Amino acid sequence: xxxxxxxxxxxxxLIEEQGAAAARRLxxxxxxxxxxxxxxxxxxxxxxFLSYGLDGRPIAPITWQLALAVLMGxxxxxxxxxxxxxxxxxxxxxxxxxxxMMYGYAWFVGMLSMGLILSHFAPMFPRDxxxxxxxxxxxxxxxxxxxxxxxxxxEWPMFFLGVWIAAVNTAxxxxxxxxxxxxxxxxxxxxFFVMGIVLRRRR
Length: 203
Hints:
The chain is mainly alpha-helical. The protein has one domain (about 25-200). Helix content is about 80%, strand content about 0%. It contains 7 helices and no strands. It has helices spanning about 10-25, 30-50, 65-85, 95-120, 125-150, 155-175, 175-200. Helix 2 runs antiparallel to helix 7 (about 175-200). The two termini are about 30 Å apart.
């Protein structure tokens, strides 16, 4: 059947289907964007929780060095998966690419600056609070960058995710290292999964 034989309603449906197919090629699956980080935080901070315990007594014989290695390794795997996913999508140039590049640099500069500043002040804190200091401040930077990213791309879900991370991080920091690790693992790690599922349904 030629295009000339289509009714206006069928033509409109065809245009919408082609537009949706093009959008799927340009935009990666939201679940693939959020789930890897959710899994990384769920496993990484879950390991910290097992190392800390809620009352200062470890639940499992896991050192903080091992817990940190698990968290860093999980985040590296998540980043590698996202890089692989991004390579399979259509490359976007122009203003959007420039904003993405600057946003990526903001993450690098923010985390590097935070690490250098905390390495100066950390020796002034009790040993059992240093891990909480690094975790809570790094998550504060993460929450701010997510809110900034939501503002840059006009994405309210991304902005609200940043607000959620800030709220859970603040509550956990006031309760102590074990509670902080548990709340971040379940509520923030799980929150990434929920965000990916919600955005996938909306898509």
